[in-house]
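Researcher: Structure for this, please.
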Amino acid sequence: MRATARKALLLSTLPLLLPWTVARAETCAETVKFLQEMYRYTPRICPDGEAADSCSGVTLRGTTRADPAKGEAWNVWESSPRSKQRGTDSYSYIRADINFADLAVYTNNGYIIAPNANVCAGQPISYTQCAYPKDGWTYDRTDRGCGDSPQTSMTETHCQNVGVNSGQAWWDQFRRNQTPDGAWGPQPYQMQCSFDMSKARGKAGRAEAFGDFIDAYKLTGGREFLMANEILRSNDQPPNITAFMYTDPAGRADALKNQADYFRVTGNYRPVVQVILPKYQGGQVQFLCDGQQMAFPGYSKTAGFCRPGKPSSPGFGVPGSPVLTPAQSAAQAAQAAQQAAQAAQQAQAAAQAAQALAAAQAGQSSGQLPQSSGPAPQSSGQYPQASGQTPAQAAAQAAAQAATFAQSAAAAAQAAQTAAQSAQAIQAAAQSGQMTQAQQAALAAAQAQAAQSAVAAQTAAAQAQAAAAAAAQAQTEAGYCRKYIESATWVQRNEPGYGLIWSLQVKPTECARRMGPDQTDRAYRELYEMFKTDPRWTENINPGSMRRQFVCHRVGVPDKEEWNLEPARPYVSSEASLNLPYICNPLPSDAGK
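Model: Predicted structure, token format:
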């Protein structure tokens, strides 16, 4: 079934070229090449003395799409109201010598921004304000997220203010937050100091602070590999997005939707890149182009990155307005119509692929596209969520959306064709004599209409492709549990070695008790989303411990009526957790096993 889904989505994407498009250094293949170069470049400080994140590494941000069913409405590249008020957004920084296994807060898609040295001339720049070698739990910290955490009894500040001026000093302080028995303290992440990179530190001070951040991260290991670092960047300017990305196949459909929305709203094309994070310490990140994403439309208002000292490639950045002859104007209108027709074909192919997936999921075969109703969704750019639906229902809904987008693309293509024919007729009528002002105006209007219609068709095609990806995801999820957690309740227990502690009584669904390892992340993410802001979870969390206990129950005692998970328990290896006398429930003395 999954092979069929992949085959159905091998859509033909023809290149769409405008007259000024010669080379496209910022399309997906070149973007991946650029990301690989940045990832492999590992200076402690940039050659020009700037902080290393200005010229190296890959800075990425995990995001979550709004759910219209919940009344939510935002674009993923925009800061939340709380982040706007704080003045910073959270990112993670990764490169060949700084790796981690997962994005923050279990997100699986988002975007990548360019290092400041590679931001194109004339585009706004944001700056790193502070850096935490490990997730800083910055949601409610003071000083733009770089200061004190109200979750601890002590007062956190910048590392430089408390004499933490090296990676080793940070690591020593972090380890001091362990409890006497060797387990991690209840709040090691909230108790972190941040390496201050504000303007007041000066160029050299900022660069040294980020170098210390790099040194500190390199000293962490083992279970700390599971947790990403966190850097906070100013958000008074829009982010300079280089690419949209996903780290798990489950995030692919959202990444494609984000790409389509970004082009529709901003006029900027950015490719979709799959980022494969290493699962084990010592592994390396892979960057891959998504094969069925929106084709480069031939232009973009801005480029995703620039090589220092070199202009953007042709096709990126608003072109000039050369004086065209009537014949050139008519030719451009005809080319726009051709682009629109190609986009309509792509949208139709995507809709057919989505319908095939929906039909397969429903156990029926149909060569007809589903009939859509209501206005074309691209006016709002929203893709209704499939929460609470069966995979078959979700696939059918996605197929209907794709069909609607395909109809929109076809209508736009027809409008472009009509405009091109009008331009051709005006140009032909004027061949024998001087063109009147009225004819010149009409020709310009026809050319503009053809170009606008081409953009509309290309946008609709991208949205149809994203909907087809959603249909494919729905089919993939047919083999997964619809729900993993039947219920989960906090209780307090007197536990040996601990005394009175909080315990999360988890009752998994019958499907979850029989799930394979390929569904563990999905199941744990469902539980995490239920309690990620609950202080009983967040104030006592030992990194990786709750997940280890969860997996241990799945493997060792899946039929136990309730899986009891305690945030206070230490992290131990998988083998140790399964071989303890009290399976899955390590004592403080088991820390490090």
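Researcher: Any notable elements?
Model: Residues 326-479 form one domain. The mean pLDDT is 78.
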